[in-house]
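Colleagues,

Please find the record for the two-part complex below.
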Amino acid sequence: MTAAPRLALALLLALGSAGGALAVQPDEVLKDAGLEARARDISAGLRCLVCQNQSIDDSDAPLARDLRVIVRERLQAGDTDPQVESYVVGRYGEYVLLRPVFALHTLLLWLTPLAAIGLGIFGLWRLSRRRTEPTPQGLSAAEEAEIAALTRRD
Amino acid sequence: MLIEVGHFALALALALSLVQAVMPVWAARSGDQALRAVATPAALGTFACVLFAFGALTYAHATSDFSVQNVVENSHTAKPFLYKLSGVWGNHEGSMLLWILILALFGALVAIARESVPPTLRANTLAVQGLITFVFVLFIITTSNPFARVSPAPPEGNDLNPLLQDFGLAIHPPLLYVGYVGFSITFAFAIAALIDGRIDAVWARAVRPWTLTAWSFLTLGIAMGSYWAYYELGWGGWWFWDPVENASLMPWLAGTALLHSTVVMEKRDALKVWTVLLAILTFSLSLLGTFIVRSGVLTSVHSFATDPTRGIFILAILILFIGGSLTLFAWRAPMLRQGGLFAPISREGALVMNNLFLAAACATVFVGTLYPLLLEMLTAEKISVGPPFFNYTFIPLAIPLLLIVPFGQTLAWKRGDVHAASQRLFAALAVALVVGLAVLAYTWGGPMMAPVGIGLGAYLVIGSVLEIVSRARGYGASRTRKASVVWRRAIGLPRSAWGTALAHAGVGVVVLGIAAQGWATEGLKTLKPGESLASGPYVATLDRVGPRMGENYSETTAFLTIRSTAGDMIGTVETGKRFYPSRKMTVTESGLLTLGVSQVYASLGEVLPEGGIGLRLYYKPLVLLIWLGAVVMALGGAVSLTDRRMRVGAPARAKTKPVHAGSMAAAE
């Protein structure tokens, strides 16, 4: 049911918004194409707080719209991208960032890929050091008996 | 009446699956062969009972029997008939019943498969499968009974969630479940091997067809879910790194690793312990996926998360199977003898690298999905792990994995020669580089990663083609350039070689599709009739906005004409907002215009009172390749399944043609 629950969830969101409009609305778009592109980039990395794992860029919830407007206002006021992000984080907390910060409490998270590769290489290294020749597996008692029975038949 | 019989059949299935679970174990202790043979009819009986129960529920849905609660909650008399049928599994109870049906089906298939499996291994496998079935039937009977009645019966049902009233629901869950549940067989085999304390190439060969089947279906199921979300959700994305998606991706990654490690085990008698662990983990991840979707721990807002007792029951199932199997693994795995050393530069070496990267990718998705939950439990800190995290971590793991794919195909077993392999792959590398550079030059100023992805995809596809061609041309003295000979040899290549090449080419096709999304364009505008909106090379003109009636909805439709920027007529697209009165819900219906493998995607936003609409128009170049590639991958799995090796294993031949005592003596 990969899609089904998400569909259901999108539906809940649609219910929450008036008229079920879609994400960024034409009236929100900034005149300056460069600023708008930056706004879209930033929005894609900010979580819609009342949705499940949706960015404010994708979401149609009213709160997401408010956030999109805030992002655009900050950009128009001359903020850099990180300034906009830290402004939003200041207001809504770290939870709003879809890309978690790299800090002590997210260290394990960010290091997972490297740790997994490292662990695998370590395991392989251990395996290669144990240079024992493979020995054939012994037969079970039942199989020994079967062979004995077969050879006895002669 | 039929409903009660269906309910009773489910109870009977509970008893029969217990018989299936217990008898082989008992037989092993008492040495009673007849007792062990009971597992086969028990497995068949369980399947028959669950099939009957499923049929009864389907009948109730098809006839809109509103004395059944499940039908009341999820159906409506005006609902189109197809959705009445697919609505059977468009809810928690029914989908769980489908899950169990597939579980019992696989149990029955193992019971009747004429396989070269040693009898003890087969009996233990059936027992484990029986135990899984028993626990899940118990779960459905105690917490999620689909046959509960309502009295008095209401005259009308609540209807199915409109977003689920789509052809996608008819095929996506069944495909996905066959995938998830198919890995239960591999799991059962692994547990059986651990109980038995031995594992060998025969085991690997017995497991392979099941793994291939499950993997192929899971691939299709995920792809279908992705395409469904793409056209239904209306914002044109095809993968969201949503926990529920990750829940299906994890078993796929582990299953893909398993598929490759069993090959090493079968051919080289190596990676045994790792393969058993992977088999356990793959099904554990399938179970975890079920838990994530149904318990609501991660996605707290979705349709199935209603009853905490269900979540606790599933958690108990998780602990029983995952905890139990890993404990058994820790205890018994050291007894499985390790064998088969190998050189790093060899086909098995490449396959080990494949497993390394797939396992790391799987671990990353796993940690990324569960980390916020754990962190919040431990420190009360709330963080989000969204698409940017997965893109930053997953892609760097995927690229080296994809780069070694053609090498894995080309290198020989035992001792490969990187130099020779590189020479053979030179054409693929060269063409991919030229293609990548040409695309880069042509789209200069656009996204940088897209041409890289195109080159990578081309490299994978050409690598697969080259593998077939070079094998067909032969090596050494028998090497030939004669087209007729090459053709004949190519046809004569083992099906598994074709399957491998197809599946890997399919991966390349997916990569091409994904890469091309770097050039996708989006247009957004409020339009009045007669006005136009451009996106990429296409322009949409709003012809008119009008009402339209469906079987159980009314729709406000925007009729659009699509033209090229030069003004040539391309086609028409309709996108609308559907209102379902039964649930008082509005759903956006996106409009798609397929041009080859590319699509123009229109999605209706707000409908303004003065006749204007908010329109979103995407141009998605080569987007269909993403899902077509997945179909090619699954096709590769299917072709591999028809390989002669799967049908007649050496031990099977020995069984049908018993060795004569005389030849045995002669051999001595």
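The two ends of chain B are 67 Å apart (CA to CA).

Comments are welcome before we finalize the supplementary table.
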